């Protein structure tokens, strides 16, 4: 077998095994935690003056309907069967809504916020970081680096809170939350898009500003190392134009940052939960928080499957690209 | 370089367009005029589910919480102690077993069909058959329901012979449109509980044994609003302008009612303060600081009470089975401090009698002489007396044997208690902390233990706690009997009642007898006995009233009920049945003069409201035959609650094993994978 196939085969089996384990954990974890989704639905109703018998009946019907009275291993095998066939079941807290539909509704909002914010932060951060490294010792470097350090140490939610306080509550320039005006429905017309963009700015900034800081710091270190390499010294000796050297340095130190962005997208997803809660922004973060809070087993499982699945797949693709561009990895797989 | 830029740009564009593409299926052109719309929050915390009267899980507005799509025959209003005749016009208890209800001849479904006795009978029978819906759990209380003529219904009492529960079920019964429901039932049978009833705004697909069935029927309601639009963050209802009740009740002010779904209280509060939300049922700390938010009272306590906040003892725990310990705990709590520091002075100290003494119409059921005798004040408020608490414990033989500063039981057992509260419920967390400190002061080892809401429910349900802060139900027309039942009835299990797993046959006997009392004198006799039992046995300690969260913004709407404008009582939007609806009838756009609806007055003042007194006097005028008490102990609900799956305690060991197994597998696979790769 050619080493490249062998390598990919190992990677692929590893991918499947990890997926299986992740799926199992996604099944087990919410069930180990005490409490179940049905109790919570009923508990919410028990505060009123509905008769206990009615609530009792409702509780029993719900437990039956969602198969929570079946033995755990039966539930597990049903879930496994479904997980590999693409049927993620129906949500309990959002009663009888298919999990896939819920995810399909929430995911675009997160992507729309997350991907541009991360890409913009990545571009600006890397450019500023490289510039700062290139202009070592100047005021520009000092101000960029110190801003970068401060920004990168700020938690997303804190930045979000500050932005809400200053721009929404004190100045009133932007709305304090939600993805669009509550009197509108999502549709492709100018009124909606205007409202969407107006609501977009604060959450976008809260994510973009903080991650820009991280990229600046990372890039400055990489670029500084690159500046010490012999080709830069040689070019300087040849009196190559500054801008051209800078471009070389930028390009050559970008490679690790490309890997970084995949990881970043994953970690931002986590930070996103709090940001979305603060802005009441209807993305995956809110969906996950709601699912966890209400112990909605099918929904928790579904979200984790999607998140883990995409993360694994992204990793696999990155590794595949490495194989193509870096022969060392290909050869390393040979025994 | 240029090419790369192009690719990057195209990728971005793709993400944008693709994401919007994903939104397309749920989009519809809506644009709600702000001045015609009332925005609500605090009743619905997860996205819309069903609008189906027969479903165990319903969206706000349907029936079980804040229902106004399906109206009941009559509706009891606790704050005013009156009944609103809605679909029903009048009723009479003919004798001890029979109730006759006359329906309004004007009442019509939203498609123009009349609401008849047939609808009531059909709804009742179907609901019993599928085990869900307005008659769910009514078997002990309602025997059968018969249509005498098209607008007269006869209810017969069930085997339990419990008049208050019989009336509660029968009078607050909400009928469904037979001509629509019949079609659905024919198609999907008992799967009808899974139907979404959104009248074409969503896919009403129900999966049955014979595959998926799409149900295409219009949404037909009896109330003045029906579903207009919904998505993950909002549910929008639109007024039916030719609603049948227009000539009797008038039309509610807002054309649209929108419930906005939030994940956090903070965002909802922010929107309330900014006027983006008009009517709210969320927890608000220090509401006095926000001038832009209206509440029922202008000053303290701002809100009115809705239920009790209780300190529950787990009576299954052997240590807590000693009434001396429970009594000492009751004396050791500094109630005033808890009310001020934890509950923002929103509530006075409640009475140990569990009577809602803040409402004058319930106070009459408190035996003041008895309260004076036990607690030294006629209100039955437990005094803060740590010395007395210590004395009780010392007399009962509690001593610090091992010298750790905390008392041990008379038999030398260590006492380690904790008070569970849901995390994030900041007022409750502070209260638990203060109470724990008070109890430490008398030598009890007690700590506050905040756990997440899911875990909290698991622990309560599985009796896996020692002390817990919890709540009771809201008062019904038969208060305090309903609250006594919620706290004392051993046939109930949490979350439907009896959170403390209290099991006292004397208490049950009194509850059963009180439900059959023939006169208010007799009823008072039983209540006195129950109060005596509570005072002596301390099954649980009321700490505060849980507030009925009703707040509003006047930015767009005026005419909100409050102490200056008490034509109607405050209504938290999460209240069950159609209660929230009635406040909308008095709302006017900002600037328009406020005029309370004509009908919102008791009958003798020219309105249509039936005073609860009338209902109670009908009740006490009825002769009730003797029923053997011991027989009622073995009602169906007892046996059923036992066979009912309790996923907590029994399953936890197997869960644990599966969990460990999963983690072990995970570790093994990761290790093998890592080694393979590193080779």
UniProtKB/TrEMBL annotation, chain A:
Family annotation (InterPro entries): MetI-like
Keyword annotations of the record: Membrane, Transmembrane, Transmembrane helix, Transport
UniProt keyword Lyase, yes or no: no
Tagged with keyword Transmembrane: yes
Subcellular location, principal: membrane
One CC-aspect GO term: plasma membrane
Domain named ABC transmembrane type-1: residues: 107-318
Transmembrane segments: 7-29, 103-128, 156-176, 196-217, 254-274, 299-325
Gene Ontology terms: biological process: transmembrane transport
Membrane topology: Multi-pass membrane protein
A Pfam family: BPD_transp_1
Compartmental location: Cell membrane; Membrane
Family: Belongs to the binding-protein-dependent transport system permease family.
Protein name (record): Peptide ABC transporter permease
UniProtKB/TrEMBL annotation, chain B:
Domain of life: Archaea
The keyword Membrane is annotated on this UniProt entry: yes
Domain Solute-binding protein family span(s) in chain numbering: 93-481
Pfam families per the UniProt record, alphabetical: SBP_bac_5
TM helices/strands, residue ranges: 656-674
Gene Ontology molecular function: any one: peptide transmembrane transporter activity
Gene3D superfamilies the record matches: Dipeptide-binding Protein, Domain 1, Dipeptide-binding Protein, Domain 3, Periplasmic binding protein-like II
SUPFAM superfamilies in UniProt: Periplasmic binding protein-like II
CDD domains xref list: PBP2_TmCBP_oligosaccharides_like
Any single GO BP term: peptide transport
Name under which the protein is recorded: ABC transporter substrate-binding protein
Originating species: Thermococcus gorgonarius
């Amino acid at each position: 077998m050619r080493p490249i196939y062998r390598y990919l085969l190992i990677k692929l089996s590893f991918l499947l095994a990890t997926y299986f384990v992740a799926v199992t954990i996604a099944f087990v974890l919410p069930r180990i935690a005490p409490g179940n989704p049905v109790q919570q639905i009923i508990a919410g109703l028990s505060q009123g003056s509905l008769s206990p018998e009615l609530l009792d009946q409702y509780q029993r019907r719900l437990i039956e309907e969602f198969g929570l009275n079946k033995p755990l291993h039966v539930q597990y095998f049903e879930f496994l069967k479904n997980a590999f066939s693409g049927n993620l079941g129906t949500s309990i807290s959002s009663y009888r809504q298919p999990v896939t539909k819920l995810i399909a509704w929430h995911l675009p909002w997160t992507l729309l916020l997350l991907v541009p914010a991360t890409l913009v932060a990545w571009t600006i951060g890397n450019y500023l970081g490289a510039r700062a490294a290139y202009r070592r010792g100047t005021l520009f470097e000092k101000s960029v680096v110190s801003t970068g350090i401060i920004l990168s140490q700020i938690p997303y939610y804190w930045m979000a809170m500050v932005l809400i306080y200053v721009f929404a509550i004190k100045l009133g320039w932007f709305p304090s939350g939600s993805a669009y005006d509550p009197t509108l429905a999502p549709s492709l017309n100018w009124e909606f898009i205007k409202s969407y963009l107006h609501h977009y700015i604060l959450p976008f900034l809260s994510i973009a500003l903080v991650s820009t800081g991280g990229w600046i710091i990372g890039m400055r270190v990489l670029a500084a190392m690159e500046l010490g390499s012999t080709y830069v010294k040689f070019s300087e000796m040849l009196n190559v134009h500054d801008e051209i050297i800078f471009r070389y340095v930028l390009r050559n130190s970008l490679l690790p940052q490309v890997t970084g962005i995949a990881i970043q997208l994953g970690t931002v997803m986590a930070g996103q939960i709090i940001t979305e809660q603060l802005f009441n922004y209807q993305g995956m973060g809110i969906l996950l928080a709601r699912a966890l809070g209400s112990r909605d087993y099918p929904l928790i499982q579904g979200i984790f499957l999607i998140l883990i699945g995409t993360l694994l797949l992204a990793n696999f693709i990155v590794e595949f690209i490495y194989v193509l561009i870096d022969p060392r990895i290909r050869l390393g797989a040979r025994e | 370089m240029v090419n790369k830029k192009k690719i990057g740009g195209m990728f971005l564009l793709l993400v944008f367009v693709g994401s919007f593409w994903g939104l397309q299926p749920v989009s519809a052109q809506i644009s709600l005029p702000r001045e015609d719309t009332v925005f609500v929050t605090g009743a619905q915390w997860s996205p819309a589910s069903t609008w189906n009267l027969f479903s165990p899980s319903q969206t706000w507005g349907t029936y079980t919480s804040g229902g106004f799509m399906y109206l009941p025959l009559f509706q009891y209003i606790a704050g005013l102690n009156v009944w609103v005749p809605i679909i029903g016009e009048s009723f009479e208890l003919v004798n001890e077993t029979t109730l006759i209800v006359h329906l309004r001849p004007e009442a019509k479904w939203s498609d123009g069909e009349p609401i008849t006795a047939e609808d009531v009978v059909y709804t009742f029978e179907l609901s019993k058959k599928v085990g869900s819906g307005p008659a769910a759990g009514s078997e002990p209380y309602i025997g059968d329901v018969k249509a005498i003529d098209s607008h007269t219904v006869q209810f017969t009492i069930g085997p339990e012979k419990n008049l208050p529960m019989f009336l509660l079920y029968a009078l607050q019964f909400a009928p469904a449109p037979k001509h629509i429901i019949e079609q659905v039932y024919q198609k999907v049978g008992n799967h009808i509980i899974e139907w979404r009833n959104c009248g074409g705004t969503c896919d009403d697909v129900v999966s049955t044994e014979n595959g998926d069935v799409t149900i295409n029927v219009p949404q037909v309601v009896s109330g003045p609003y029906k579903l207009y639009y919904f998505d993950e963050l909002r549910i929008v209802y639109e007024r039916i302008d030719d609603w049948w009740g227009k000539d009797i009740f008038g039309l509610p002010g807002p054309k649209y009612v929108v419930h906005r779904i939030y994940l956090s209280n903070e965002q909802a509060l922010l929107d309330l303060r900014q006027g983006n939300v008009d009517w709210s049922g969320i927890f608000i700390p220090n509401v006095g600081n926000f001038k832009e938010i209206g509440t029922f009272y202008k000053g303290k306590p701002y809100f009115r009470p809705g239920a009790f906040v209780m300190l529950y003892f787990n009576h299954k725990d052997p240590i807590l089975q000693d009434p001396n310990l429970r009594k000492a705990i009751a004396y050791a709590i500094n109630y005033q401090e808890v009310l001020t520091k934890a509950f923002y002075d929103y509530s006075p100290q409640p009475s140990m009698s569990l009577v809602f003494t803040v409402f004058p119409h319930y106070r009459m059921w408190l035996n003041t002489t008895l309260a004076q005798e036990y607690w030294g004040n006629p209100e039955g408020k437990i005094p803060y007396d740590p010395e007395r608490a210590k004395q009780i414990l010392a007399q009962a033989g509690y001593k610090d044997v091992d010298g750790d500063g905390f008392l041990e039981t008379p038999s030398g057992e260590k006492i380690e208690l904790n008070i569970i509260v849901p995390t994030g419920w900041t007022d409750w967390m502070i209260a638990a902390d203060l109470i724990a400190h008070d109890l430490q002061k008398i030598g009890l080892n007690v700590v506050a233990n905040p756990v997440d809401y899911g875990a909290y429910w698991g622990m309560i349900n599985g009796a896996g706690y020692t002390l817990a802060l919890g709540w009771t139900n809201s008062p019904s027309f038969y208060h305090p009997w309903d609250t006594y039942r919620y706290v004392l009835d051993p046939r109930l299990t949490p979350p439907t009642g009896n959170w403390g797993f209290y099991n006292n046959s004397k208490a049950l006997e009194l509850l059963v007898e009180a439900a059959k009392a023939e006169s208010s004198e007799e009823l008072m006799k039983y209540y006195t006995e129950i109060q005596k039992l509570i005072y002596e046995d301390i099954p649980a300690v009321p700490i505060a009233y849980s507030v009925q969260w009703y707040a509003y913004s006047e930015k767009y709407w005026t005419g909100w009920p409050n102490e200056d404008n008490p034509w109607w009582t405050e209504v938290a939007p999460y209240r069950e049945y159609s209660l929230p609806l009635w406040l909308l009838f008095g709302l006017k756009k900002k600037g328009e003069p406020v005029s309370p609806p004509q009908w919102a007055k008791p009958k003798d003042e020219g309105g249509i409201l039936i005073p609860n007194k009338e209902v109670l006097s009908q009740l006490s005028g009825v002769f009730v035959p003797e029923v053997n008490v011991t027989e009622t102990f073995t009602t169906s609900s007892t046996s059923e609650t036992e066979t009912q799956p309790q996923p907590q305690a029994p399953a936890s060991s197997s869960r644990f094993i599966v969990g460990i197994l999963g983690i072990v597998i995970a570790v093994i696979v990761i290790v093998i994978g890592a080694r393979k790769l590193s080779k």
